[in-house]
Amino acid sequence: MTLSIPILHIPSHSPITLSISMIICFSMTFFAFYKRILDIKGALAALALGLIISIFSDIYWLMALVGLLVLTSLVTRVRFNYKRQHGLAEGKIGERGINNVIAVGFIPGFIALFSYHLDNVHPGLAGLLFLVSLSIAAADTFASEVGVLSDRAILITSFKRVAPGTDGGISLLGEMSAVLGAFFVSLIGFVFVTDLYFSGAGHGLAADPVVLVICIAIGWIGCQLDSIMGALFQVSRDLLSNEMVNFLTISICVLLTWVAVGFGLLPV
Asked: Cα 98–102–108 angle (5° rounding)?
């Protein structure tokens, strides 16, 4: 039995599965705040996101989100003292706030809310868009957190040397890190969101290696778009915040992926 709330559709969940999802959500919220991965508002926003994904999608999508949280928190701690001393660290001790969570989590949450309808448009579309959004977030975070450690950064729009941490700045180390971030999160998503191991997971998203390649590629491309927008609208004109750039980047790439699937440009 399923429930329908006007436009939104709540799939059926077994009491055990839903209980486990709730435990994971609250446990990860407490862990993220206790370990100062997120501040209190950021942790509560992440809790809301986890609950939305658990209720309107399933526990497998939640596990992909947990994978993103764990990996990005680990990479944030890489040479953190160095980044803090040079003014390149997030927050006081690497914690992120509600604006960061909304910027990265709004689109995945939106996809989860309307996953039923998206999959009616194209089987597996919701799962693919969800993975793409996580891949972009991971690629950007890895590139930012590791790329700032390079002393050879250039502005993506002019190729002029810039200081590490400059919005729109890229480096070989950052580009390699972006690929790794997209790969690791896409791989976690490939395991949980497709039907590779869990029947019915991903709402019919086939465990085709092409899906993994697409998610990694779009994750990396999204990171480049983020850098371009940062160079154009943060460095040059100071029109957008970093969080707004992150949000727009994910939104644009997810929308273009949807269009590409609709026109048969992606073999999904």
From this structure: 145
